[in-house]
Amino acid sequence: xxxxxxxxxxxxxxxxxxxxxxxxxxxxxxxxxxxxxxxxxxxxxxxxxxxxxxxxxxxxxxxxxxxxxxxxxxxxxxxxxxxxxxxxxxxxxxxxxxxxxxxxxxxxxxxxx
Length: 113
Hints:
The structure is a single chain. The mean pLDDT is about 90. The protein is mainly α and about 110 residues long. The longest helix is centred in the C-terminal third of the chain and has 14 residues, at about 90-105. The protein has a two-stranded antiparallel sheet. Helix content is about 50%, strand content about 10%. The chain is globular and about 45 Å long.
């Protein structure tokens, strides 16, 4: 009888590759709330660098979770939108939010610990 083995290319690995890490779930959440321009996202994602935000947006776009629209204006305006495939991941993100609301702890000054 063959032993059960977890393959490195398992569905959980794939999901973590697609939305894992420190920033992607936050970026997806903000875009879904119409915070969809680069400057707004930069202000909304605490401590992310411009380079990292650009990288994460490109990866989310490559993975088909967001789309980018460039408006022909001067200066050019770029907005990001959640795709249908991107919205399909929201039950996971909403579960993360519920879990965080339940277990988040604060210090005496209201900061998350």
